[in-house]
Amino acid sequence: MIPSYLINLDRDQERLAFVLAHFQQQGINPERFAAVDGRQYSELEYQRFIAQRPRQGKKSWLRGQMGCFLSHYGVWQRIVNSRVRFAAVFEDDIHIAPGLYELLEGDDWIADSVDIIRLDTSTNRVRLGPEPALQCHSHYFYRLLSTSWCTGGYIIHQRTARQLLDLAPRYHQPSDVLLFNHEESAIARQLKVLQASPALCVQDKHHRGAVTFSSNIEAGATRDWRLYCRQCLQGGYRYLAGYKRVEFKG
User: Fold this and answer.
1) Residue limits of the Glycosyl transferase family domain (predicted)?
2) DSSP result, 59-83
3) Is the pLDDT of residue 228 over 70?
């Protein structure tokens, strides 16, 4: 069985009960990992964290991004210390698809060259390889060839977790930027990342008609309208260039 970790803030017991019930319906029993709350750090600690991890341009770290990154970082440390080959990482605001358990029964279906398998959807259109790189039962996984967003659920190689821990703090970025942003991450382009299509989990805030959980691990930023317009133009280009949305079918 591939070990699974579920990132959850201590105060979010209702959310924990909700997501655990759905995991346990499939016979999955993830180990809870106590999430880091960036809002609990003093202003001095927060500013020290930012100073060690400067971001490009006018970007900085939100406290929620700080907590989310440190939570994933802590899970990567646990994975490295456990010496398993692969482990699954989940945030606690997700909905999961039937059949997720089939992936976690063992890791013999995953080639050792794979660094990360994204189980989550993405908020943007992505470019995938033309043919599946892996198959597990009726689930297909394609090479991810472009920037993607969200870290609601993924399987990661122990080797890759160690690579992430070895990065100097100046290369740190919010977790999804570090793992999947080809433009801003120092490591993302080097990683062999596969994408489940259809996705096997989706964060609540991106799932239509779902029970609504606000994101307590990472709070959203105020919308930058110039950035939003630029993203809309990029979205139009990606659509014309064959980029696609990864759907969740729960």
Assistant:
1) 1-178
2) ----HHHHHHHHHHHHHHHHHHHHT
3) no
